[in-house]
Write a structure and sequence with these properties.
This protein is an all-alpha fold and 421 residues long. It is built from 18 helices and no strands. Helix 2 runs antiparallel to helix 9.
């Protein structure tokens, strides 16, 4: 471990209380932030409405959800492999090449849909390739923040990235709904073009994003050894083990709630633009929560933030069981989205601080894979359960699962408060 990594691991407070310059003063952070914004807008313009394209072609909701789940599983499968190579190879080329592959995949779907040929197998294959490319991009980007901003700026940078993603949730679904009403192939074209822009922005980053070189005494690279090292590091760190469980639960439940809202609204005859409005309102809550998160985590201790946020999500999820209006779905999802960002800033900031640079990509992919593995089942599960039991049963089930996650967070509050074990 190099000297810088030791300083990071043994740093004092979780977050700096001092004022630091805005990360946007740094050109390469701005490029990285903009690439994510463009990527998010394109993805929202297509992925949220890709199930509607399949539904419009006569496929049932369960099958449409299955396509989304299979695509997510492909990303999960590629992510650990990409994480190993992102800790070995130059990360910037991985980022822009992955974006180009994703552009090709979504561009092929745009062409076939524009020609009036919605072929299920082709849509599935393209979605699988797109998710695999996105997983590769994400693995390569895992160490970017550490290179682009100093340690005292981590919390602000993470907060800005969270705010960016939530702002995309505000604009993206509504934009996708408008584009979908113009023609169902237009969102797919927008997504393909967005990936081309992501590739250009990533290539324009000047900072050296290559991983730290191995030490002289390190053994020769071995894929199996490197993969196992990342898994051992996460499993040996109690805080990271907590992050795995909490993140996996939140990702699964939020995914189930979002797809529950989409499928339930569609079953009630809501238009694509109305469904986009649901997720737009959810994005407003997430944006407000992301903007407030850095301020909040500098003033409150970590454990109360995590436990209070976990319990607050229970009644908001339960409210979805009794909602009957589109705007009510949006407000309740917005309530959940308002709560999550502060916890994410706490967990991601410390995870970055306790991880050596040479393990950043593997740590990120281990946490990401674990966090998304259960979430990959959310689309198909929500589709099947909504069709079989109705939206109320799904919402109440999610509320009960949120309560279980809150109990776990409360039981592990000492670990979060201790920040080391």
């Amino acid at each position: 471990m190099d000297e810088a990594d030791e300083k990071l691991q043994h740093s004092g407070p979780l977050l700096s209380n001092g004022a630091s310059s805005s990360p946007f003063r740094r050109r390469d952070f701005t490029l990285f932030w903009a690439a994510g914004a463009v990527d998010g807008l394109g993805t929202c313009a297509s992925s949220l409405f890709l199930p509607l394209i399949l539904l419009g072609a006569g496929h049932p909701a369960g099958l449409a959800g299955l396509v989304a789940s299979v695509a997510l599983v492909s990303g999960l499968s590629v992510s650990p492999v990409a994480g190993v190579y992102a800790d070995r190879l130059p990360r910037k080329p991985m980022m822009y090449l992955a974006a180009l592959v994703a552009a090709g995949a979504m561009g092929s779907v745009f062409v076939t849909v524009a020609l009036g040929h919605v072929v299920l197998v082709h849509v599935l294959a393209a979605a699988v390739v797109e998710q695999a490319a996105s997983a590769t991009y994400g693995a390569a980007a895992s160490g970017t923040i550490r290179r682009l901003v100093p340690p005292e700026g981590y919390s602000r940078a993470i907060g800005y990235l969270q705010a960016r993603d939530q702002a995309v949730q505000i604009v993206g679904p509504t934009l996708g709904g408008v584009l979908f009403q113009l023609a169902r192939w237009v969102p797919l074209l927008a997504d393909a073009v967005s990936f081309l822009l992501v590739a250009a922005l990533s290539k324009a980053i000047r900072t050296d994003l290559a991983p730290a070189p191995p030490g002289r005494t390190d053994p020769a690279p071995s894929f199996g050894r490197d993969l196992a090292e990342g898994l051992r590091f996460v499993s040996a760190e109690p805080f990271l083990r907590f992050v795995v469980v909490w993140t996996a639960g939140i990702n699964a439940l939020l995914g189930a709630l979002y797809f529950h809202a989409v499928f339930t609204s569609h079953a009630r005859g809501a238009s694509p633009s109305s469904i986009g409005l649901v997720l737009t309102l959810a994005g407003v809550g997430g944006l407000l929560g992301s903007l407030a998160a850095p301020w909040l985590v500098r003033r409150l201790r970590a454990a109360p933030i995590v436990t209070a946020a976990s319990w607050a999500m229970v009644p908001t999820a339960a409210g979805l069981a009794f909602a009957s209006r589109t705007w009510a779905y949006g407000l309740l999802l917005g309530g959940v989205s308002l709560i999550v960002p502060s916890v994410v800033v706490v967990l991601q900031t410390r995870a970055m601080l306790v991880t050596p640079d040479r393990l950043l990509a593997r740590m990120g992919t281990v946490l990401g894979t674990a966090g998304q593995a259960v979430a990959a089942l959310a689309p198909v599960t929500a589709g099947v359960l909504v069709a079989a039991y109705g939206g109320r049963a799904v919402a109440l089930g999610c509320a009960g699962a949120f309560a279980g996650l809150a109990l776990y967070a409360t039981a592990r509050a000492g670990l979060v408060a201790g920040e080391a074990e």
